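Exercise 7.
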Amino acid sequence: MLTGAGRFTDDLSLPDQAYAALVRSPHPHARIRRIGTEAAQALPGILGIVTGADCRGEGLTPIPHDPVPATKFDMRLTAPGGGKIFVGPHALLPVDRARHVGEAVALVVAETQAQALDAADAVAVDYEPLLFVLDVAAALAPGAPPVWNETPDNLLVDTMFGDAAATERVFAAAAHVVAMDFHVTRASPMPLELRAALAQYDVDSGRYTLHLTSGGPGVVRQRRQYAAILGIAPEKLRLVAQDVGGSFGSRNRPYVEFALALWAARKLGRPVKYTATRSEEMLSAYEGRDLVAKLALALDRNGRFL
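Solution. The predicted structure, written as tokens, is:
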């Protein structure tokens, strides 16, 4: 890698490959009223333009994320009232609403990357901007706009551990109480290597191959998740990652662009390549943190933790 001999995903090319580009929402929250593709379709080299309605019609399912910890070592989290936690469906392309700046709302596939990017700019999306919030504390305030109608107060997890009454008694009798609020700010990973994928479908065997930037393509989970989206057996999909220029956790989960490239490769009968721009990487890579923690510690007169 030091001598320039590294093999990254965007270094790979296949004969007759097409190129994918995404149309992305400029709004943090907006209703999608109409997606106009006529002008983009008229541009040279366009092989297809796909919307959320097309994905739904093709039976492409949302990404089956599993964000709730479930190992034997994890605390059991529940929704308010002790029920099952709602996990917002992560559609490859939304049909009704965009819920964050940079969310992909349409896919363009063309003969060249430049043609795909030009056509993506020519897609006209009629948005109705909706109210939004920018941090978790504001999202829990009374009257805050809901991200999902299924959770109108934006509260997905509400779990208590331990003995609340006993804890209150200890704090009431403690010689010293130290309390502090912390805000762990949002982490936006920025790998040197831009997100990229090269998808291939073999019609004779019905098998898919996906070259991708990923921190761990060999794990059963990612292959199972992409296969579930496509409605195929995991054995029909091979994931390949060679050198990866940074991960930081943001590349250990499936991405809509990669699943769309796999599907487009089968529909077109030719390989499909996607490489993010630097702006796309900033807007749409998975982020973390943005935690507000309110902590208190009870101590006796000798400073022993109670």
